[in-house]
Amino acid sequence: MLRSILILIISLLTIPVANAKQLAITLDDAPRKADGYFDGPTRAKTLIENLEKHKIGQVTFFATTQSLNQEGLERIGTYNKAGHIIGNHTHSHPNFLETELSVYQSDFLQAHHLLQQFDNFKPYFRFPYLREGETIEKRDGMRNLLQKNNYQNAYITLNNYDWYIEELFQAAVKVGKPVDMERLSKFYVDVLMASINYYDDMASKYLGRSPKHVLLLHEMDITALFIGDLARRLQREGWEIISLQEAYQDPIAKYQLDQPIKYNPGRIGEIALAKGQKKNLWHYTLDESYLEKRFNQEVLLMSDH
């Protein structure tokens, strides 16, 4: 009898975990320019400390190898040694819309060879700007090259403009505008959660379920500062953070959009587009003027306060 009660209690305790929505965290553009609020080593140290403090687990950094000077090498080395995955984000971050296929392929391969030095390098490729080729020739040319080199297309499902929040923050720091860091954290987390929930709702509409998601972030100062605050909010709202490898076990990892598109909203947006949704494939928070207005209102400390 006691055994049965214990089993029942254990099963009840595990239900929330089993039903948790799941996402993997990825950070693009590493080692990204760092000459504002933090320098590169301080950003890396802060980010690693907050990932460990909040028990976030393994994340994936997508590296652009043209930034691997001595400091950049050390920064990626820090992430690598901490057990995080290093993926390919090209050598020079080209815009595929403005780049010939052969040039783009060479850029990808250059990064591929340079990234072999990291023990935790894995063959995941994140297209810069999420642009996968606007013609059949370019799209299929990269699909074939990825397949030849045993790469996974490192698609995302949860899109946002975190990079623009960083730009607003760094611009304020540069000219000495007072920034309320608590408000900045709240603004950052609120904006990200709004887009996360939007794309999860879109997934439920078209898939009938919440898939294993992939969150797009960037290797930036605000990420280092507030990744723990984001993780706490995710946990409160029923999310579980998983590895990228686990996320790509979801069936949508095998999905491929038939027609080439110029601008890619992410895998969930692709699926919605294929099922007939033409508008609102990007959440309303993915808008620079919207974010700037909220940043000025909610984050900057006004002189008359």
UniProtKB/TrEMBL annotation:
<keyword id="KW-0732">Signal</keyword>
<dbReference type="Pfam" id="PF01522">
    <property type="entry name" value="Polysacc_deac_1"/>
</dbReference>
<feature type="domain" description="NodB homology">
    <location>
        <begin position="19"/>
        <end position="136"/>
    </location>
</feature>
<keyword id="KW-0479">Metal-binding</keyword>
<dbReference type="InterPro" id="IPR002509">
    <property type="entry name" value="NODB_dom"/>
</dbReference>
<keyword id="KW-0378">Hydrolase</keyword>
<dbReference type="InterPro" id="IPR050248">
    <property type="entry name" value="Polysacc_deacetylase_ArnD"/>
</dbReference>
<dbReference type="InterPro" id="IPR011330">
    <property type="entry name" value="Glyco_hydro/deAcase_b/a-brl"/>
</dbReference>
<protein>
    <submittedName>
        <fullName>Polysaccharide deacetylase family protein</fullName>
    </submittedName>
</protein>
<feature type="signal peptide">
    <location>
        <begin position="1"/>
        <end position="20"/>
    </location>
</feature>
